[in-house]
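User: You have something folded?
Assistant:
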Amino acid sequence: MKMKKVTAFMMTAALAASVLAGCGSGSEKQVVIYSNADDEAVEAMKETLDANGYEGKYLFQTFGTSELGGKLLAEGKDIEADMVTMSSFYLDSAQEQNNMFLDLTFDYKTLTEFPAFYAPITSQEGAIILNTEMLSENNLDRPESLKDLTKPEYKDLLSVTDIKSSSTAWLLMQALVSEYGENGAKDVLKGIYENAGAHIESSGSAPLKKIRAGEVAVGFGLRHQAVADKKDGLPVDYVDPKEGNFSLTESVAVIDKKEANPLAMEMAQCIVEKGRSELIRTYPNPIYEGEEADPENMSAYPKVFPEKLTVSLLERHQELSEECK
């Protein structure tokens, strides 16, 4: 009886000590990661973290770009996340408004200059996407430019994304404004929206899904996804528009919290240093020194918008878009 009481006491004490140790150890607290990345990127980042000793040490939550951007701007350092992967232009605006990110403590060498508080993880370009079978069935020409999408032959056979819902549409808008100016862009966009009709989508991936399903013949979406579908043997092809293949980067940043979780910075470094080899398979644009693009994946007209990409510029282009509907 006495031995049982002593044993029970010792077990209880040991359990209590274990719980207290766990509560007091910052390294045991899970890192909360917020991300606007698509499924392929999220999966690559999770696999990278798990393979490098961080399995079970993080919680990953995904949001739409506008939703997560709104949270960053509204909540600042009070956001629940310890780390975010997000469209770079939103990170720039959130830092300018809230000064909410730590400078990264690890070294990295990019092909172009980026701020010290984030490191790019993907670069994504836009392109015209096609269902080759529907083009043939409807005797449609392959468009060569975004302006071609205003031709009457594409009426009700075109799908595009609403810029108010998805940053994918901003790639189309940048190309139009850069090539034709804001007034000229309005003229082209009105024709595109008229042809799209009910196929103006709220999701950046929706046009490609409709292309795959044969619901439309032509659309605008992310170039790398169409490249992958074509390789997989689907009746999908792509055209680099003469107005240009504009791109957006997504980057990783660490929140400047009073009680920062040190694992957040470690995981950010892990994604950049260990994850790029996997991410570049899906997102083929080179970002870091030493990376090379497969010639098959290189776009014909890569361009950069002449103005710095900011949330205020996005809002200006969203207003332009609304005027065209």
Remarks:
- The CA atoms of residues 245 and 302 lie 5 Å apart.
- DSSP finds ten helices and ten strands in the chain.
- The longest helix spans residues 168-196.
